[in-house]
Write a structure and sequence with these properties.
This protein has 3 domains: about 100 residues, Rossmann fold; about 70 residues, 2-Layer Sandwich (Dna Ligase, domain 1), CATH 3.30.1490.20; about 250 residues, 2-Layer Sandwich (D-amino Acid Aminotransferase, Chain A, domain 1). Helix 4 packs antiparallel against helix 5. A hairpin with a 5-residue loop joins strand 9 and strand 10. The chain has about 450 residues and is of the alpha+beta class. The N and C termini lie far apart (about 60 Å). The longest helix is centred in the middle third of the chain and has 17 residues. The chain is built from 16 helices and 20 strands. The strands form 5 sheets. The chain has an 8-stranded antiparallel beta sheet with strand order 13-12-9-10-11-14-19-17, sandwiched between helices. The chain binds adenosine-5'-diphosphate. Adenosine-5'-diphosphate binds next to strand 12 and strand 13.
Length: about 450
């Protein structure tokens, strides 16, 4: 087992990784920017090293600074968390060549899944259902027109290097294609330094459903079931739950089996998430794979009792799946997570500043993952996620009731948060009945505007 792990991240996920290391008896090294000097990961890690000024490029994304910190601290492994360097194949490679174990999949698999049209091809080859679309990157506007005719409108143009919903455009008619293609290309070049685009059939009123897998270094892959992530704003998740009301035991097993075979064939290692869209006939279609721990991993932990971060570390250290899982994975009850962002609850504009009051809820079945505290400051430089409120109930109904009361008892003052929005979602009849798709938030906010107007 590792003796010391460096955590190349900040905020709640850095603290989450520290928790896993403490339980495994592994020493931790936090790295921090000058803006995070007074953060809880710095306080709770065994060692902490300042790696630069607040700007991401000069600190958390500065690969030589991160590697030097690991070398100075004499760490044997690096956990990248999510975001930041977690899906950077080059970083994973530098770790390996510096004699540091990267806690994640091998660089070549990160690269394969990071080029989304190549990931589509790999999934298709092994029998995972994918949406009709272009085979590979689209070379020109003419080719885009050809593909769209073959696939049939509406289509969605997406960035090969995409993430965070950027570089995507929905095209409903041929006359709009060229303008939207150019917009997507510009947005993708600006966001990712890569303007490559591909195309998929656009699914009307889909649900976003994803599967959590774990793969050890001995070729064993298991699926830990699904998460329902359709409550999104601007194609980014706000609330997630597990299981999904739409996924039958047969469908769960069928997808689990095909994913195990596929990921074993592509040489996948460690934790990963395979994202699907469900159409109105309840068919699942692959859209992308994330080669890291997800923000919403706690809902799977709550219903399976598997600690995913400890599993990642044990797998990276060479443990076999049977030792990681210690038996068959059993799903119990229902879990929901609300992402508490430091944002205006309806305009979604960031809200940094000092937290003047902070009272997280507790009680049966409630879990909070956060690095926020009273009198602490939310710096303006980073992701707006400040806490994850997660509950488990014996069924969806109890989980919803528990979440509603926990949100009522969650006090954050001094900054805007998404707590008021979540309170209203938890009181919405459409949400409570489980009848929603990825368009829920737009309809929900539109409905409210009508009432006010
Ligand atoms: P990103 O990596 O930028 O997050 P994804 O491919 O994961 O992009 O898609 C993000 C979201 O965009 C999905 O959860 C869904 O709401 C919407 N979306 C993506 N592809 C399609 C599609 N083919 N049809 C309908 N909606 C889609």
């Amino acid at each position: 087992m590792f003796k010391k792990i460096l955590i190349a991240n900040r905020g709640e996920i850095a603290l989450r990784i520290i928790c896993a290391c403490k339980e495994l008896g592994i020493r931790t090294v936090a790295i921090y920017s000058e803006a995070d000097r007074n953060s809880l990961p710095v306080r709770f890690a065994d060692e902490a090293i300042c790696i630069g000024p607040p700007q991401l490029g000069l600190s958390y994304l500065n690969i030589p600074a991160v590697i030097s910190a690991a070398e100075i601290a004499n760490a044997d492994a690096i956990h990248p968390g999510y975001g930041l360097l977690s899906e950077n194949a080059n970083f994973a490679e530098v770790c390996e060549t510096s004699g540091l174990k990267f806690i994640g999949p091998p660089p070549e698999v990160i690269r394969l899944m990071g080029e989304k049209e190549k990931a589509r091809a790999a999934m298709k080859q092994h029998g995972v259902p994918i949406l009709p679309g272009s085979d590979g990157v689209i070379a020109s506007e003419e080719e885009a027109r050809e593909w769209a005719r073959q696939v049939g409108y509406p289509v969605i143009i997406k960035a090969s290097a995409g993430g965070g919903g950027r570089g995507m455009r929905i095209v409903r008619a041929e006359e709009d294609l060229v303008a939207l293609y150019r917009q997507a290309q510009q947005e993708a070049s600006a966001a990712f330094g890569n303007g490559d685009l591909y195309m998929e059939k656009y699914v009307e009123h889909p649900r976003h459903i994803e599967f959590q897998i774990l793969a050890d270094e001995h070729g064993n892959v298991v699926s830990l079931g699904e998460r329902e992530c359709s409550i999104q704003r601007r194609h980014q998740k706000l609330l997630e739950e597990s299981p999904s009301l739409q996924v039958s035991v047969e469908l769960r097993n069928e997808i689990g089996d095909v994913l195990s075979k596929t990921l074993s064939a592509v040489g996948y290692r460690n934790a990963g998430t395979i994202e699907f869209l469900m159409d109105q006939h309840k068919k699942l279609h692959f859209i992308e794979m994330n080669t890291r721990i997800q923000v919403e991993h706690p809902v799977t932990e709550m219903v399976t009792d598997v600690d995913l971060v400890k599993s990642q570390i044990m797998i990276a250290a060479g443990s076999k799946m049977q030792d990681v899982l210690q038996g068959k994975v059993v799903h119990r009850g229902h879990a929901i997570e609300c992402r508490i962002n430091a944002e205006h609850p309806e305009k979604f504009t960031p809200s940094a500043g000092k937290i003047t009051a902070f009272h997280p809820p507790g009680g049966t079945g409630v879990r909070i993952d956060t690095a926020a505290y009273e009198q602490g400051t939310i710096p303006p430089y980073y992701d707006s996620l400040i806490a994850k409120l997660v509950v488990r109930g014996k069924d969806r109904n109890e989980a919803c009731q528990r979440m509603a009361r926990a949100l009522e008892m969650f006090i954050v003052e001094g900054i805007h948060t998404t707590i008021p929005l979540h309170r209203r979602i938890l009181a919405d009849p459409e949400f409570l009945a489980g009848k929603f798709d990825t368009g829920f938030i737009e309809r929900f906010l539109g409905k409210k505007a009508e009432l006010v107007g």
